[in-house]
Write a structure and sequence with these properties.
single chain; 1266 residues; alpha+beta; eight-stranded mixed beta sheet; six-stranded mixed beta sheet; 27 strands; disordered N terminus; metalloprotease; Stromal processing peptidase, chloroplastic-like; zinc; Metalloenz_LuxS/M16
């Protein structure tokens, strides 16, 4: 989901779906160096509220530095999608994007949330980074009438138990002047249903939902959700649902036939369901053949008619065992611990989708087939179709034709499912925990004749489990805090859970309650941020998550506190104290007004974006809403209903409703307080003590209770009102600046005009009199919204040997401080809140960048420009902010030896780049040598007019944007002396040295795991090499090292495309285009060979990291495996890398790579963020080859590429044994004789965070099947 500015308090969509900005469904891990804060915009998505200190802005683009899509922790025990390891821009698609990885791991694994929130959030990166309605709500819906089925069976059993409802009726504190009866009548009205959502049900029980959606055009999503998951497995079947997902999906021949059509497919398994999904064009490329029937036929085969061949079962068994070891990170183990204790009373705490290794190894085909026969039938599935659909009756006919006869021969029609809470369907299912209503047949039959007599029905409740609710007056005793200690943990983290039934959002009153909670918790988010004032803050992050979970069948409120181990007691105390303060005194009138206004603005913005939400986001939204029983509305309905209830909200009610959410913390220990469902602390076994080294870390349950009680006893005072500035630059100040600096546009270098406008792309180029180049594009695809990015050349590459780490620490210091001019950080943040501005700050190897997302409502664009002006002119550098930044990077360094992946990647980077610290994390020695003035100079010395570039994309007018450019960028002090810019020390690849080409890392761990990285030099995006060569000077002379063109390609070129090939080879983006296609091809071969044929890994990927300003690049192959297979896996990867000469690239491989990249490009063209990436470096003097044709001709350049061109690019990758570096990491109890530990002098690199996520289940959904 795209983050709103209230990203700190997170709801998942319920009022309306939100455009994620990424149609590829990739959910990348949160890099611990890319941290940003979007100051508090509580987007109203009622089934989820999260108070935290970060947000994320998805990255999609060809040139700009990638900002990984950091998925929000949704307590997903669905195992998260595989994430890229080596950061910078990944020109090559990760395998999970280009192929079909098991989506059982579809959720990402965010590292510990360590950001110290501020108005400008640091997203600094290093070069290595691990980079989801009941039909009863449809009574008044304007839906095309089809057969409407009974209540959706997978809606969670979330009704409030008898006797509880009365306790919720005392929340209304209405002012006497309001007509209470009229208000109650209004609040009791049902919310409107989505007017375009079409629902139906076949005679065999299959439910289907169809939703027309035009984004992306000429494509559609088809998802088959089978309502069976790990929760339905017997004790001897743990992991079998996931196994069936693999075998059924990858064994489908009809799915394979879709691969040449431009379709992408995948699958995943979770607690409560298994989903198979296909993203497809509506028609084939060269004809008008309708692809709907073929896609539906493939899903029918996958779900209901799989072939359980022994060969496929064995192949997937190997893959899953490899996946299990790959997943078994410390983050996954923490997730398991959290869920085990939160759901200790039911199966959710012990039925993780990946399963148990010893069981996976021994199931035979018959065992797997029986589970499939028990659960895979039409009445236990729902089909979702969302996309560019014009003829719904035709789609319904297609569904009936493909699925209508399935299941009718061997099963009877399902009877209505019971609706009472806890009631279960009466049919053959696995045994469930005691206490649930209903009966189950214990008879097992293996004969087909007997199975025909069984009436198979779906569970009435999904997931079919019973919860112990955290409600006042319950007789359950408080469970003592649980402590999970592990040597791979670096920080202290504690989670306090409260678990209640889901309150379905179906009426205006339900929505009103959600709105009030949202306002209340938004205030908590901001208040927590204001406590970061000392140089040694007691906690690194405090989060309050209040969210519904369809997969868990409950609403969970979680207080998560993370801290340095030495500060844990004070951290818990302060967090509890802040919660108490808000609960006791409530939000202020100013806070109510502020957050209500921001919510309404945000909602209005979403409504304006109704035609720009992607099909996959709409589908996920509908699926999750159905699972929770919420009414599905579109964005316009969501905004209108929100406006309708907003006027009925009072301050007293907000504080009363919000206080109920916090009582399990604020009233902890009182007889009337809800008991926490669990308290779980995850802590390291040892900690670093300055001057001592490693020391044992000890903690007891009693100490945890005492620290909570200390927060309950600490004195508290009411929160004072803050004065929020309406503007950062007054009109009089602006007029004075204008008179002083006389801003104007000057001729663009190489041109005699002051304004270059390209009609085809809509791109305008300008140059200000202070030297700052500006690019902008007017785009109405995201209504009344815009995005702006400042790029400053230099980055970490400009760090000298005397200032190692200065740039990255300096950027973090600026982020930590958050002050500009005479305004405090709090005032700047609230200014952003009021104007719906997202602001982020990052440093990379090549540049420093600031990015702003804003709305054009209420002068939002003007406010964003004011903030940028103040950063450039009046940034405030604070000593305590510097201390915090330095302490964070010190902590990052010390956490590297506790992460197998990070330690392995670190050692590889040090070897390959000759120990260059600019591409890894600063060492303690380097950090100690820094001071505030050093880091300030390292950052601000690059802010020279000609070294900066500003790009803006949005729904503004030419007059509006150029006025802002002149007023706020043109009045920035002129600075043209680029000769004074810091120079960069040379970057070199280490020469071949015995002992460094191949290395190993051993890590002591309780469980076995292995990973490996293979890397080598490559040119940069524009054809420059680290040796100083310009490949374009010799491109016509480069030999193609294979046996010549294929016959089909010769015919193609003879047919008249030779001129196109010449144009491509002369184009500055030749190597960027061909390297991207090459990466797709190599990824496909790695999957086919190393994963599918040899069974040596589950997860393997090839990525190219191509720089723009630096004259180098590199490729990286990352592979996970087992200790026993990892060496063979590395050898196999090397063989694939070097095998393109002996095993020539086939035309179909190139065609598939072209379709993949072109589809991605076309799908993203409606995104402002994507256009912003296209504009990057357009006027940068340090990237002279970037020109407008690199944007205008992108599609034709891809289409013109030939196999010969791909080999020209391939020959520039150094894959010989002398140039290739590899490092294998092995973890386990017997992994080497000693653990590899970094010395204080060694420099680690940025990789995937090896620290603990702050929520539960982030790593548990099974990985993408393909």
């Amino acid at each position: 989901m795209a983050s709103s500015i209230f990203s700190g308090v997170k709801f998942s969509p319920i009022l309306a779906p939100v455009n994620s900005g990424d149609s590829r469904r990739s959910r990348c891990v949160k890099d611990r160096n890319k941290v940003r804060f979007n100051p508090a915009s509580p987007r109203l998505t009622p089934n989820r509220v999260r108070t935290e200190a970060q947000s994320s802005i998805p990255y999609t683009g060809l040139w700009a530095q990638p900002t990984a899509n950091r998925g929000r922790l949704k307590r997903s025990i669905v195992l998260g999608q595989r994430n890229a390891i080596f950061g910078k821009e990944a020109t090559g698609t990760s395998l999970s994007q280009g192929r079909n990885f098991c989506f059982t791991c579809k959720r990402s694994q965010p590292g510990i949330r360590r950001s110290l929130p501020s108005a400008f959030v640091d997203r600094s990166s290093f070069s290595l980074s691990r980079s989801r309605l009941t039909s009863s709500l449809r009574k008044n819906s304007q839906v095309l009438n089809a057969t409407v089925g009974p209540d959706e069976p997978h809606a969670a059993g979330t009704a409030w138990p008898d006797g509880i409802v009365a306790e919720r009726q005392d929340l209304d504190l209405l002012p006497p002047e309001i007509d209470t009866a009229e208000l109650e009548a209004f609040l009791g009205c049902e919310l409107p249903s989505h007017p375009k959502l079409h629902r139906g049900q076949l005679k065999n029980g299959l439910r289907y939902l169809i939703l027309p959606n035009k984004v992306p055009p000429n494509r559609f999503e088809a998802h088959m959700e089978v309502h069976v998951g790990s929760i339905d497995e017997e004790d001897d079947e743990q992991g079998i649902a996931h196994m069936i997902e693999h075998v059924a999906f990858l064994g489908s021949k009809k799915r394979e036939k879709l691969l040449g059509t431009g379709a992408r497919s995948n699958a995943y398994t979770d607690f409560h369901h298994t989903v198979f999904h296909i993203h497809s064009p509506t028609h084939t490329k060269d004809s008008e053949d309708d692809l709907f029937p073929s896609v539906l036929d493939a899903l029918n085969e996958i779900a209901f008619h799989p072939k359980f061949l022994s060969s496929r079962v064995e192949k997937e068994r190997r893959a899953i065992l490899s996946e299990l070891q790959m997943m078994n990170t410390i983050e996954y183990r923490v997730d398991c611990q959290l869920l085990q204790h939160l759901h200790s009373e039911n199966k959710l705490g012990r039925r993780f989708p990946i399963g148990l290794e010893e069981q996976i190894k021994k199931w035979d085909v018959d065992k797997i087939r029986k589970f499939h026969e028990r659960w895979y039938f039409p009445a236990n599935a729902t089909l979702y179709i969302v996309g560019d659909i014009n003829n719904i009756p035709q789609i319904v006919n297609n569904i009936e034709a493909v699925f209508g006869k399935t299941g009718l021969d061997n099963e009877s029609t399902p009877s209505p499912t019971p609706g009472a809470f806890g009631a279960m369907a009466n049919f053959l299912v696995p045994k469930l925990p005691a206490g649930l209503g209903g009966t189950f047949s214990n008879e097992r039959t293996n004969t087909a004749d007997q199975s025909k007599m069984i009436k198979r029905e779906r569970h009435a409740i999904r997931p079919p489990v019973e919860h112990n609710w955290s409600l006042p007056g319950t007789s359950i005793d408080l469970k003592p805090p649980q402590i999970f200690k592990h040597e791979l943990l670096q920080n202290f983290a504690i989670n306090m859970f409260c678990k209640i039934p889901v309150s379905k959002v179906q009426t205006f009153g339900d929505l009103r309650n959600v709105l009030m909670k949202r306002i209340f918790l938004s205030a908590l988010h901001f208040r927590i941020n204001t406590r970061y004032k000392s140089s040694n803050p007691p906690f690194t992050s405090v989060e309050l998550d209040h969210s519904d979970s369809g997969r868990e069948g409950c609403t969970v409120t979680t207080l998560t506190v993370t801290a340095e181990p030495k500060n844990w007691q004070n951290a818990v105390k302060v967090a509890v104290q802040e919660v108490r303060r808000l609960k006791e005194f409530g939000v202020t009138k100013g806070e109510l007004t502020r957050y209500m206004d921001a919510l309404l603005k945000d909602s209005e913005h979403l409504a304006a974006m109704i035609d720009n939400v992607s099909s996959v986001d709409n589908l996920d939204f509908v699926m999750e809403s159905d699972a929770l029983g919420h009414t599905v509305m579109d964005q316009t309905q969501g905004h209108e209903t929100l406006v309708a209830v907003a006027g009925t909200v009072t301050l007293e009610e907000v504080n009363t409703v919000g206080a109920k959410v916090l009582e399990f913390i604020s009233d902890f220990g009182r007889p009337t307080a809800p008991l926490p469902a669990a308290i779980v602390a995850c802590v390291p076994t040892k900690v670093h003590v300055d001057g001592v080294g490693e020391s044992d870390f000890n903690i007891t349950p009693a100490e945890i209770i005492d620290s909570v009680k200390s927060g309950l006893l600490a004195p508290i005072e009411a929160e004072p009102e803050l004065e929020v500035p309406k503007e950062l630059i007054s009109q009089s100040q602006l007029e004075e600046l204008t008179l002083q600096r006389n801003p104007c546009f000057v001729p663009i270098p190489g041109s005699s005009v002051t304004k270059l406008h390209d009609k085809e792309t809509g791109i305008t180029q300008l140059r200000l009199s202070n030297g700052i180049p500006v690019n902008y594009k007017i785009s109405a695809t995201e209504s009344r919204a815009g995005v702006m990015r400042l790029i400053v050349g230099g980055g970490r590459a400009a760090e000298t040997s005397d200032s190692k780490g200065a740039v990255v620490v300096g950027v973090r210091t600026l982020s930590e401080g958050g002050r500009v001019g005479d305004f405090s950080r709090e005032q700047v943040e609230l200014f952003c809140v009021n104007h719906l501005i997202n602001c982020s700050l990052e440093s990379t190897e090549e540049f420093i960048a600031m990015e702003f997302r804003f709305t054009l409502r209420d002068n939002g664009m003007q406010a964003a420009f004011q903030l940028l002006h103040m950063v450039l002119e009046r940034s405030v550098w604070l000593e305590d902010a510097f201390d915090r930044a330095r302490q964070l990077y010190l902590s990052y360094f010390r956490s590297i030896p506790k992460s197998l992946e990070r330690a392995t990647a670190h050692k590889l980077m040090i070897a390959m780049l000759n120990g260059d610290e600019r591409f890894v994390e600063p060492t303690p020695k380097s950090l100690q040598n820094l001071n505030l003035e050093t880091v300030k100079e390292a950052v601000m010395s690059h802010f020279v007019g000609e070294n900066m570039e500003v790009s803006i994309v949005g729904d503004f007018s030419e007059e509006e944007i150029e006025r802002c450019i002149l007023d706020y960028l043109g009045t920035v002090k002129a600075s043209h002396d680029s000769a004074k810019l810091p120079g960069s020390e040379p970057i070199v690849f280490r020469q071949p040295t015995t002992g460094l080409q191949f290395q190993q890392v051993f890590l002591k761990d309780t469980d076995e795991r292995a990973c490996a990285y293979i890397a080598g030099p490559a040119p940069n995006r524009w054809g420059f090499t680290v040796d100083g060569d310009d490949l374009f000077q010799s491109v016509s002379k480069l030999m193609v090292a294979h046996d010549g063109l294929s016959k089909s390609e010769e015919q193609l070129l003879e047919g008249g495309d030779r001129e196109l090939q010449k144009k491509l080879r002369a184009h500055p983006l030749f190597f960027g285009i061909t390297m991207g296609l090459l990466a797709e091809i190599i990824n496909s071969r790695l999957f086919t060979t190393v994963r599918d044929s040899l069974g040596l890994t589950y997860d393997v990927s090839f990525e190219l990291n191509l720089f723009d300003r630096l004259n180098l690049g590199w490729y990286v192959v990352s592979v996970t495996s087992t200790p026993g297979k990892v060496y063979k896996a590395v050898d196999a990867c090397k063989s694939v890398l070097r095998g393109l000469h002996s095993n020539q690239i086939a035309p179909r491989e190139l065609d598939r790579a072209k379709r993949t990249l072109l589809m991605r490009h076309e799908a993203e063209l409606k995104s402002n963020a994507y256009w912003l990436n296209l504009l990057a470096h357009l006027q940068a003097s340090s990237v002279p080859r970037k020109e407008l044709s690199c944007i205008k001709e992108l599609t034709s350049l891809y289409e013109a590429a030939s196999i010969e061109d791909i080999y020209l690019a391939y020959n520039q990758l150094r894959v010989d044994e002398d140039s290739l570096y590899s490092c294998i990491g092995i973890a386990g109890a017997q992994a080497g004789e000693e653990t590899t530990v970094l010395s204080e002098e060694e420099e680690p690199e940025d990789a995937f965070s090896g620290v603990v996520p702050v929520g539960r289940g982030s790593s548990m959904t099974t990985r993408p099947t393909t």
